[in-house]
Write a structure and sequence with these properties.
Elements: H1 3-15, H2 20-30, E1 34-39, H3 47-50, E2 58-63, E3 69-75, H4 83-93, E4 100-105, E5 112-119, E6 127-134, H5 141-148, H6 152-155, H7 164-174, H8 177-198, H9 214-232, H10 243-249, H11 264-277
Parallel strand pairs: 3-4
Antiparallel strand pairs: 1-2, 2-3, 4-5, 5-6
Helix pairs in contact: 1-2, 1-5, 8-9
Length: about 300
């Protein structure tokens, strides 16, 4: 399978990762690991580690010589992916699985962490816990690129003579924060130059001498980045950036529209998010009323765009 096709296949799996069937297809079919699916006993573990899990961890897949590299799946007992619960579990598993990739899900398997443990070269034996987060419906381009690097065929197309150390080193590279950071800023730069040409702002928005909306574009991108981080913390619902949900929520929603005066998404969602929500204290939030100034940015506006507006 060509690399582009394989990347698309991995992306499709991650976008719909809601149970172990998707995980099986990912590791057993796309990434070329051996099937294992063997439960691991946490009987001798401390209570802090055992109580973090909804069920026994599973040796899910293996790879390399003598199948010595392990993929271990752990289902947390909590509804959230709490990192404080993952650390004691991994600390116990590392004793018997020194070459390993750990996959965690929350209890209902709606959110996932692919977790790599790398030993810090600058501090003797200090463990670095690096994660790739997967939530169906979220932007998963970078996650797909990183996960695809775990494909054993990328190390050796013949899948022969691959040492567990070589797989571990491959995982370390895939979870390299510096590489991910460079990709992130490269993507931000691409957004910026695309927006300068394609996004139209109101006529009174400040412009530079060259006639472009540099300030408005930078302000928009920084706000969107901030919203993304807040969304990752669970403080902004995913539905605000889900085209299918928005089509049901907003009247006249068209995702292809640019962010200009015609954009329902910009006026109903982004304006209300940036000003009436994030820039207003909780006890002062509310909808504009007929007798109030429609341009009051501290209040929610454009009720007419919502199919079921809340009071």
């Amino acid at each position: 399978m060509a690399q582009v096709e394989r990347q698309k296949a991995v992306l499709n799996i991650l976008q719909d990762l809601r149970n172990l069937d998707g995980l099986k297809k990912l590791f057993w079919e796309e990434l070329n690991y051996e099937r294992e699916n063997k439960p691991l006993s946490p009987r001798q573990w401390p209570d802090s580690a055992k109580q973090a899990l909804a069920e026994d961890p599973v040796l899910f897949a293996s790879g390399g010589e003598e199948n010595a590299f392990h993929v271990v799946y752990c289902r947390l007992a909590s509804s959230d992916l709490k990192r404080g619960f993952e650390r004691p579990v991994v600390s116990q598993l590392l004793r018997d699985h020194p070459y390993a990739l750990f996959v965690f899900s929350n209890k209902n398997q709606s959110a996932w962490h692919f977790l790599n443990v790398k030993f810090d070269e600058q501090a003797e034996r200090r463990r670095l816990f690096r994660r790739i987060t997967v939530r169906p419906g979220a932007g998963l381009r970078t996650a797909t690129e990183r996960v695809q690097l775990l494909d054993l065929a990328e190390i050796n197309p013949e899948l022969f003579g691959i040492t567990p150390l070589a797989i571990q080193q491959r995982c370390d590279v895939a979870f390299d924060v510096e590489a991910v950071t460079k990709d992130f800023f490269r993507e931000i730069a691409n957004w910026y130059f695309w927006a300068l040409k394609n996004v139209h702002f109101p006529k009174d928005a400040p412009k530079e001498a060259d006639g472009h909306d540099h300030i408005s574009v930078i302000r928009l991108i920084t706000r969107l980045i901030f919203c993304w981080f807040v969304k990752e913390k669970g403080l902004i619902p995913d539905t605000l950036f889900d085209e299918r949900k928005l089509a049901q929520t907003l009247i006249g929603f068209e995702p292809a529209k640019t962010i200009d005066k015609e954009s329902v998404f910009y006026r109903a969602i982004l304006q209300n998010l940036f000003f009436a929500t994030l820039n207003t204290e909780m006890d002062k939030r509310g909808w504009t009323k007929e007798e109030q100034n429609f341009m009051a940015h501290s209040l929610y506006r454009h009720r007419e765009y919502f199919s079921e507006p809340k009071s």
